[in-house]
């Protein structure tokens, strides 16, 4: 009888703990720039649902990701930085450009993460969470190999063949002809939440929006054509895609509230990199996807954690690798076997500290873009960003760029020659980090001549 009562007490304690654990809704959007949302000053783009959420969330002004999709996503779900994932670019074998365009030999990038490892969803599934993935994956061939039970639309491809059904996506059953992908993924997300409302769940809702190709409903495109005052700068189709993303985001949040789950659900909103330079504009920042200028790596990010986070904006530096340890702490889940490179944001969100890291590092030892295209030809580089200064080191020219982000957030004035001591100090810190993480570096062609 004593053993039976003890077992009952243990089951009751476990049930209570499960009830207290929050569910997690991670919204990971694609190619949405920091300046593409109203709460960061956008006026042409319409994001009323995202902006309303920002009013009650902790908004991170200085949230950073990798410059391109798959490296960011691999880092988020493994908790590892790019030297440890081996994924630097969306292209294998050193990125883009022809051999004659490359003055040095770039590092070979992996196309997918291939090592056996406990990813974020594995950890939460082991802790008893129902796990679901809806939308773009671009980390391995299928998220169900990495801890997710449901997969609706996630595979190795980085962009949708079509935003309208038929989707030509082997992981998403086609809807009626002409069905719009943002609406479909919203419905898939809501259905998962409804099925799992009685237990803690982890849903990653990862819209393909607003990755190219630029495709939207004609009525929405026309609406933004009528609003456009600077057609050379603003693309009405891109604006229509952002509006559809916002509508779908609002639909998922409305479902969470209607189901009575809002007070025990952590909601995180972030993007995997900055705006694509062929789609939009990052002003007042500089650069775009593929670059380590602020427009390429600073991303819109906010979190709502009931009972913990506050409605405020913070300039604390955070990295996309920080979400893995953060969610483990939020949910009380066990740590994986591998060492996480990220840092938990829980002390920051609980106002126990105002700083969790003093620097962000970016290692892109590959080429990006095409020399003759509209997109800037980006040669291999590494960068370190601190609260005030950023240093970018080029492996082709062996020259550094230094920017004062406090006084020049648009990175228009290179101060490397004006402040050589600061440049040397940051370069030394960057080199220390590269060595500590055994980061492979590009090589000179002269080595093989």
From TrEMBL:
It comes from the Bacteria. Its cofactor is Ca(2+). Residues 1-18 form the signal peptide. Belongs to the sulfatase family. It comes from Aeoliella mucimassa. The keyword Ion transport does not apply. CDD domains: ARS_like (cd16144). The keyword Signal applies. It is an enzyme of class 3 (hydrolase). GO terms for molecular function: arylsulfatase activity; metal ion binding. Its EC number is 3.1.6.1. Pfam families: Sulfatase (PF00884). This is Arylsulfatase. The lineage of its organism: Bacteria, Pseudomonadati, Planctomycetota, Planctomycetia, Pirellulales. Keywords: Calcium, Hydrolase, Metal-binding, Signal. Residues 22-332 form the Sulfatase N-terminal domain. SUPFAM superfamilies: Alkaline phosphatase-like.
